[in-house]
Design goal:
Elements lengths: L10 H16 L6 E4 L3 H14 L5 E3 L8 H8 L11 H17 L9 H19 L5 E4 L2 H12 L12 H7 L8 E7 L2 E9 L12
Parallel strand pairs: 1-2, 1-3
Antiparallel strand pairs: 4-5
Helix pairs in contact: 1-2, 3-4, 6-7
C-alpha cells in the first residue's frame, strides 16, 4: 500500500487510514503477516489498520520497503540550476524532472543510494515477502509511492535484476507521482512467480463523508 510522502499522519491521513481499514475489512483481508518500512507514517498506518481491522498478525519492519531519498536526489541536481529568484511552477517541474533523470540514468556516483541499488532492494523485499507467505498466505505491506511504482513498472515490463533499471526509468517516473496515499496495489504468487493484479486502487477514498485526495 502506498503511503505518499507524509512524515506522519495528520487528520486527513488518519481518515485515509480509517477508510482503507474499512475497505480491507469488507474484502475479508486477514493477513498472516504485516510488513512496513520504518518511517513514522508507515508505523502509524499499521497501528490504525490494527485497530480498524482487528488484525492479530505479527508485524515486521523491513527498511528495504523505504522510499528513495527525495532530498538527496534533488540536492544532487542543485548545482545545475542557473539564474536568480524563485522558479515559477513550470521551471520547478522541469528541474524536478531533470533531477530524476540524472539519478535514474546511472551516470553519476554522487548519491548514497543509486537508482540501481534502490530497484534491487525493493525487488528483494518483494521476493522475500512472497517467500514468507507462499502461494496460500496473505501479507500486507505498508510502503511508499516510489517502491510501489518501481515494482509495478518492473512486473509490467518483465524486468529482472540482471537488466539495466534505466530501461524502465521513464515508466517509473511517470507512475510515481500518481500513487495515491493509502492506495492498494495487489500482487499474487503463483507457479510463475509474483504477478501484478492491480495498481493504485483507491476507490475506498471516494466513499467517505468528503473527498479525500
Amino acid at each position: 500500500m502506498g503511503r505518499g510522502r507524509r512524515r506522519g499522519a495528520d487528520p486527513l491521513g488518519w481518515e485515509q487510514n480509517r477508510l482503507l481499514g474499512a475497505a480491507l475489512t469488507a474484502r475479508g483481508v486477514v493477513p498472516d503477516l504485516v510488513v512496513h518500512a520504518g518511517g513514522r507514517m508507515h508505523r502509524e498506518t499499521v497501528e490504525a489498520l490494527a485497530v480498524t481491522c482487528g488484525w492479530g498478525a505479527p508485524v515486521r519492519v523491513d527498511e528495504r520497503w523505504a522510499d528513495y531519498d527525495h532530498g538527496e536526489v534533488l540536492r544532487a541536481h542543485l548545482p545545475t540550476m542557473v539564474g536568480g529568484g524563485d522558479p515559477d511552477p513550470q521551471q520547478l517541474q522541469q528541474w524536478l524532472q531533470c533531477a530524476m533523470m540524472r539519478w535514474t540514468s546511472g551516470d553519476h556516483d554522487d548519491y548514497d543510494e543509486s537508482f540501481a541499488a534502490f530497484t534491487r532492494r525493493t525487488r528483494a523485499a518483494l521476493d522475500d515477502a512472497a517467500d514468507r507467505v507462499g502461494r496460500t498466505g496473505t501479507i500486507v505491506v505498508v510502503t511508499s509511492g516510489g517502491p510501489v511504482a518501481w515494482l509495478t513498472a518492473a512486473m509490467v515490463g518483465l524486468w529482472d535484476s540482471r537488466s539495466d533499471p534505466a530501461e524502465l526509468a521513464g515508466a517509473w517516473t511517470r507512475l510515481t507521482p500518481v500513487v495515491v496515499s493509502t492506495s492498494v496495489t495487489k500482487v499474487t504468487v503463483g507457479l510463475r512467480g509474483v504477478r501484478l493484479v492491480s495498481f493504485n486502487e483507491h476507490s475506498h477514498l471516494e466513499t467517505g463523508p468528503a473527498p479525500v485526495c
